[in-house]
């Protein structure tokens, strides 16, 4: 009842076993060193591409592998059990592609997706700003509409026929922070507002290439955990983006972001489940190896109860994660999927924090040492309680769903 593959059909079990073997042989061996050196290993992106993982959860019609949301949670759990940092890079890369699949024109999909799925280009999702984290609608990065000649177009400007003037391009000005995969990524999905006074209604999404004039990288984040997945500041100072790189319509950017974040939260819940499972596995092995008071410490009732509670946390996280994915797969209403995703993400990240902390405690002094890598699991877990919406935000989403305050 505690195996990650319990209850799976033969195809999903084969998928899980294949990814587990890959993760253990290719990803896990260098995890401690990558964390110590804060080193992003681009070769792992290529290796996951060869296995078809970068295109995993997308339809075959756009080059994807056609995995269901539930199957994707199996993949992410196995990658995270080997290294949470690699799982986060993978999840962010997929999060970047998700809106292109859902909102992109056929031309944008053909131009953007093949290199992403082949691992030739890495993606990032640029929403967070210094004053707009959990409150994404408050972002201030500005998009200014430009005519073909480069002059600004006001919101009330009209053509000779009285129609609103179309923008040939947009100028971006502002700063993004905590952007995972930056500065390594070649492609960025950037959210900017045409008018801050319009709140969520002014936000528009843009596909931006690394190397665009007026776009540069600022400070690199010095993180507590997930250190092998880079994060950096993005600075836009008059970066001109062609109208062909706008994703969706003007003012639809907030919807574009939300449509991706629900799936992203399910994926992060799966990653947290894998992280917690890794800590439980390490602790279980150690309890059989370590002796105290003349016996294996696995015989000590207090420690046995701790392990049982850790297993409870992992099982609960996995059940809620796969439940949210199943709701997505069966086409449940958006509000239901959003609430299920929030409940899974909140529960799984809290579980990861508790289980990894208990693992450090069970290891004693060895757990506090960076040599064993157990403390890395605890540091990695903390970030998941914050990114993809803080767990306080997710409690609010779940409460609203229960109390009937979310439109369905």
Provide structural commentary.
- The chain contains twelve helices and ten strands.
- The relative contact order is 0.12.
- The strands form three sheets. It has a four-stranded mixed beta sheet with strand order 1-4-5-8.
- By secondary structure, the chain is an alpha+beta fold.
- The mean pLDDT is 92.
- It has three domains: 10-117, Acyl-CoA dehydrogenase/oxidase, N-terminal domain (Butyryl-Coa Dehydrogenase, subunit A, domain 1), CATH 1.10.540; 123-254, Butyryl-CoA Dehydrogenase, subunit A, domain 2 (Beta Barrel); 261-402, Butyryl-CoA Dehydrogenase, subunit A, domain 3.
Features:
Butyryl-CoA Dehydrogenase, subunit A, domain 2, elongated, Butyryl-Coa Dehydrogenase, subunit A, domain 1, alpha+beta, 408 residues, Butyryl-CoA Dehydrogenase, subunit A, domain 3, 12 helices
Give me a quick take on this structure:
This protein is of the alpha+beta class.
Full CATH superfamily name of the largest domain: Butyryl-CoA Dehydrogenase, subunit A, domain 3
Could you say how many structural domains there are in total?
3
Number of helical runs? 12
Q: Classify the helix fraction into a percent range.
A: 40-55%
Strand order, biggest sheet?
A: 1-4-5-8
Mean pLDDT: 92
Oligomer: single chain
Order of helices and strands: HHHHHHEEEEEEEEHEEHHHHH
Major beta-sheet overview: 4 strands, mixed
CATH topology of the largest domain: Butyryl-CoA Dehydrogenase, subunit A, domain 3
Ends apart, CA distance between termini: 35 Å
What is the CATH first-level class name of the largest domain?
A: Mainly Alpha
Could you tell me the number of beta strands? 10
- Would you identify the CATH architecture of the largest domain? Up-down Bundle
Broad structural category: alpha+beta
The Rg value, from CA coordinates, equals 22 Å
Broad shape? elongated
Strand percent estimate: 5-15%
Q: Unreliable runs, pLDDT <50, ≥5 residues?
A: none
């Amino acid at each position: 009842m505690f195996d990650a593959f319990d209850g799976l059909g033969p195809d999903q079990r084969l998928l899980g076993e294949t990814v587990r073997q890959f993760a253990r042989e290719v990803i896990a061996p260098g995890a401690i060193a990558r964390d110590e050196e804060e080193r992003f290993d681009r070769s792992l992106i290529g290796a996951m591409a060869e296995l078809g993982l970068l295109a995993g959860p997308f339809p075959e019609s756009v080059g994807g592998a056609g995995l269901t949301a539930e199957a994707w949670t199996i993949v992410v759990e196995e990658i995270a059990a080997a290294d949470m940092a690699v799982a986060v890079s993978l999840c962010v890369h997929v999060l970047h592609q998700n809106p292109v699949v859902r909102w992109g024109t056929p031309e944008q999909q053909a131009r953007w997706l093949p290199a992403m799925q082949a691992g030739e280009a890495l993606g990032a999702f640029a929403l967070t700003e210094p004053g707009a984290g959990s409150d994404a609608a408050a972002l201030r990065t500005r998009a200014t509409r430009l005519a073909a000649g480069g002059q600004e177009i006001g919101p009330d400007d009209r053509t000779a026929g009285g129609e609103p003037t179309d923008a040939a391009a947009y100028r971006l000005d502002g700063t993004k922070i905590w952007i995972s995969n930056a500065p390594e990524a070649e492609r960025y999905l950037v959210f900017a507002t045409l008018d801050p006074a319009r709140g969520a209604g002014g936000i528009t999404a843009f596909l931006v290439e690394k190397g665009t004039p007026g776009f540069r990288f600022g400070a690199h984040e010095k993180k507590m955990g997930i250190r092998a997945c880079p994060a950096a500041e993005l600075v836009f100072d008059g970066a001109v983006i062609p109208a062909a790189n706008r994703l969706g319509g003007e003012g639809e950017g907030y919807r574009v972001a939300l449509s991706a974040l629900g799936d992203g939260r399910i994926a992060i819940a799966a990653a947290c489940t894998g992280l917690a499972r890794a800590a439980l596995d390490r602790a279980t092995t150690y309890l059989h190896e370590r002796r105290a008071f003349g016996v294996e410490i696995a015989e000590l009732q207090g420690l046995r109860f701790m392990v049982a509670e850790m297993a409870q946390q992992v099982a609960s996280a996995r059940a809620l994660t796969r439940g949210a994915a199943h709701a997505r797969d069966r086409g449940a209403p958006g509000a239901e999927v959003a609430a299920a995703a929030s409940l899974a993400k909140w529960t799984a990240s809290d579980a990861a924090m508790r289980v990894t902390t208990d693992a450090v405690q069970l290891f004693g002094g060895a757990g506090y040492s960076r040599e064993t890598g157990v403390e890395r699991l605890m540091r990695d877990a903390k970030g998941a309680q914050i990114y993809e919406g803080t767990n306080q935000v997710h409690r609010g989403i779940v409460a609203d769903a229960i109390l009937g305050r979310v439109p369905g």
